[in-house]
Design goal:
- There is one protein chain.
- The protein is an all-alpha fold and about 200 residues long.
- The protein has a single domain, classed as Up-down Bundle (Four Helix Bundle (Hemerythrin (Met), subunit A)).
- Helices cover about 70% and strands about 0% of the residues.
- It contains nine helices and no strands.
- α1 packs across α2, α2 packs parallel to α9 and α5 packs antiparallel against α7.
- The chain is globular.
């Protein structure tokens, strides 16, 4: 009897390439927005927040398991990358947060949206690690997977709040093409994810 050929999937690390390409594109648009302002260039402190933001959007879209994706990539391997990128992203955001701690006090939208985003992201991460992985023993069994997934979806709140946080800074919010491109990418992913959730019911 002939053995069933094991399906050959594309590399799970392609996700990292997509994140890198999109991050570089948005970093370039942000740098372009600062040209001629006398502020210099290579705003790495801002990029510490921008790169995780783009990563969230890519991972949020992939989490809907689009048909084109699951026919080419192994979903189990994708979630392995998802976890690692999520943790690295949170670390980068926390460094971004630490560097700019309390520096947006004079701008309520930027200040509160930034802190709401960080809090939602941390809660989503903690519940994701404790209840959606086997990294911490049997904790995953102490809460239903459905409830844990819903709490993990606070990442959507984090994404929207992060977008509002960026809008809170006058100079950046007026940058073209950076801000329009970021808004289109953000709300296309968020609305698609909400549509996908409704479709699952």
């Amino acid at each position: 009897m002939a053995e069933v050929a094991k399906k050959q999937y594309k590399s799970k690390y392609h996700i990292l390439i997509w994140i890198a390409v999109l991050s570089l594109a948005f970093m370039g648009m942000l740098e372009y927005g600062y040209l001629g302002t006398g502020k210099g260039h290579w705003f790495w402190k801002l990029h510490l927040g921008l790169v995780p933001y783009i990563s969230w959007l890519v991972l949020t879209y992939i989490a809907t398991r689009p048909k084109w994706f699951i026919t080419r990539y192994n979903p189990t391997e994708m979630y392995q990358v998802h976890r690692i990128v999520g943790i690295v992203g949170v670390v980068m955001v926390c460094i971004h947060w630490y560097i700019y701690f309390l520096k947006a006090l004079d701008n309520p939208l930027a200040f509160w949206a930034g802190y709401i985003s960080t809090a939602a992201m941390l809660i989503a991460l903690i519940f994701g690690v404790i209840y959606l992985t086997t990294w911490i023993g049997n904790k995953a069994k102490s809460m239903s997977r459905k409830k844990a997934i819903w709490i993990h979806r606070l990442n959507l709140v984090a994404i929207v709040a992060a977008n509002l946080h960026v809008h809170g800074f006058g100079r950046i919010s007026k940058m073209v093409p950076f801000m329009p491109a970021l808004d289109v990418f953000t709300y296309a992913v968020v609305l698609y994810y909400i549509y996908w959730m409704i479709k699952q019911k």
